[in-house]
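Teaching note: in complex prediction, the entire set of molecules is handled at once rather than each chain in isolation. The prompt given to students was simply: 'Predict the structure of this complex.' The entities are:
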Amino acid sequence: MELIAIASDHAGRELKEYLLAFLAERALDVVDMGTDNDASVDYPDYGIPLAEKVSSGEIKRGILVCGTGVGMSILANKFKGVRAALVSDTFTARMSREHNDSNIIVIGGRVTGKDLAVDIVKSWLVTPFEGGRHQRRLDKIKSLEEGWK
Ligand code: RB5
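The expected output is the structure of the full assembly:
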């Protein structure tokens, strides 16, 4: 498994730490991009650097956590090549890989329980993209991005 990155704001930090412990147990190579304490921060300050790394290809996949996951997913999907999926169940996590080739998973730390979040991440990490007709659909999104200034 390639290197992955994880980041959160204060509202997602506890879940981020829990996910980090799970990922470390599995000996997965993870870059922790903060935040590292409970002080209130602005989620874009942590989400943008991670989304930039995924957009540039420096990192293939990332995990973002904020309170609901909404702010992080809005910002991540502003980046070319980023397909961020806000997920609160395992089925959607799997489908976001099979059908959407999601490269960032976003979870709400105030929404999703810790063990469910681990299950979501586990499933998301191992599920491959199916390609085929789904690639054709992603190509249409890619064409849309080509027009971005
Ligand atoms: C922080 O209070 C909260 O607004 C943030 O974590 C996130 O839920 C935004 O979408």
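Point out the following to students. Residues 133-146 form the longest helix (14 residues). The two ends are 33 Å apart (CA to CA).
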